[in-house]
Structure formats: C-alpha cells, structure tokens
Amino acid sequence: MIPDLKDKVVLVTGSSTGIGAAVARGFARNGAGVAVHYHSSRSEAEKVVADIKLHGGTAALFGADVRNPQQVEDLVGAVHRYWGRIDVLINNAGGPVARTKIEEVTDEFYDQVLDLNVRPVVVASRAAVRLFRSQGKGNIINTSSVAARAGGGPGTSLYAGSKGFVSTFTRALAKELAASSIRVNAVAPGVFRTPLQDRLSTPELLEAFQKTIPMGRIGAPEECVGAFLFLASDQLSGFMTGQVIEVNGGQLMP
Fold first, then answer.
1. Which of 80, 169, 227, 250 is exposed most, by the fewest CB atoms within 10 A?
2. Which of 132, 137, 130, 162 is nearest to 147 (CA)?
3. Domain count, the chain
4. In this structure, how many other beta carbons lie within 10 angstroms of the beta carbon of residue 108?
C-alpha cells in the first residue's frame, strides 16, 4: 500500500483492457477512486469496475471516443463533476491501429493514428491542467512506448513517431507546469501481453520480439503498474518531473 494514494481521484483513459485495466485495479487497491474509461469495450470496462468494487475499491465507468476532442473535454468534466476533483490524469488510451508499411499509409490512416495517440493526450492534459491550477496541484502520467526510442516493430512507423511526440511533450509540459506544482511524467512499456498486442502480432512476431528481451519473456500488464503508482505518489516521487520510465525487460537500456 502507498498511503498518499488513498482517496486520490485518478482518471485512466483506455482502462477497459490490457495495461490500462491493470493500472486501474492497482490504484483502486491503494485506495484511490478510479475513473475507468472505455470507448468500444464497454463490457470489459464494466468487468473492471465490478472487480474493483468486489475487492472493496471505488470506481466509476465513463465512456468517450478519445479521437473526438469534445468528448475528451466532456470526459474530464464528467469525472470532475462526479468526484469534485481530479488528482491524477493518466493518458493511456492509444495504439498502432494496424501494421501498415509506409508506402501503404493513406492520409486517412495518418489521421487515425495521430487522432488516437497524440490529440487526446494534448486535449485531456489541457482540460486537466485548468482543474489542477484551481486545485493548486496535479499530476499527469502519459503512456509512451519503447517504440518512441527504438522505432517500433514492422509497420508501426507512425505509431512510433506518435509515441515519440508523447515522450517529448511530457518533458516540455513538465517544464511549463513545474512552477505550478503540476508534475508530468511518462511510462514507456515494452512488449506486453495484451489483447491489442495479440490482435496486431502473430505468434511468430511475438517470438521474435521475445528474443530481443534480455529477461527472455513478454511482460504481463500487472508488471507495468508499479511505475504508474510510483509516479502518482508525491511521497515516493515528489521531486520527479519530465521523466520517462522504461519498463521493457531490458529490451532497451539507456
């Protein structure tokens, strides 16, 4: 248990499955009130909320298409109205959309990738910062990726570029907001076993990825949770901002 996470309000975008769902459960186990967000996976998100409540935690369900700026603004507003505050924003929603070679990238596909991975991080952060300033403090944790530094796997150049934006935006925003007691950091997962990864990667590709990981295995979503909890705790990381924590089994070492 991390004492200073108790009773904090945490919004985790993209928390119906995978790493986001594991992070939502992790915060709830530490006594936080968790806003579980979904877009198309409502039933999975409902299971996350039900599981949290079953184990004595506090959670509520919120739906929004993060590709739509107004819905992102409305999402942040709805969470704030529900609890009366937001302490931590976790911009986790995102993904490669599909594996596409550059010569096959259309303008529509370009928009899909950036609208999923870049725009909502900016819009949600903008909305949350307004609230954080009125509260006197706040915390933003973005989900980047090992792809931001390593370039990603086959057919994910746009995704890798979008996550490069997330990492750089994290550092820039941290500088902008540090004097306002608003910390901004990121977690960059490597290869994790998630429904999205299973959908986009063949068993052969996952095996190839595994061979590049010194620890010799694919990560489980729960193994990423600790980094988010650490960054959300002022007690544990109160003097940290503008940092990107790499969680990848040694696949990429600074």
1. 250
2. 162
3. 1
4. 7
- 251 occurs within a structural domain: no
Q: Which of 38, 82, 110, 159 is catalytic?
A: 159
Domain around 150: 3-243
Question: Distance between CA 92 and CA 34 in Å, rounded?
Answer: 14
Q: Is 110 a catalytic residue?
A: no
Give mean pLDDT, residues 191-201.
Answer: 87
What is this structure's pTM? 0.96
Mean of the pLDDT values across residues 126-136? 97
Specify if 252 maps to a domain.
no
The residues facing 61 across adjacent strands are 36
pLDDT of 254 > 80? The answer is no
Give per-residue pLDDT as tens, 203-236. 899 999 999 999 999 999 999 999 999 999 999 9
What would the pLDDT profile of 40-87 be if each residue is shown by its tens digit?
999 999 999 999 999 999 999 999 999 999 999 999 999 999 999 999
249 within some domain = no
* 91 belongs to a structural domain: yes
Provide the pLDDT for residue 222.
Answer: 97
The four Cα atoms 112, 116, 122, 125 give a dihedral, to 10 degrees, of: 160
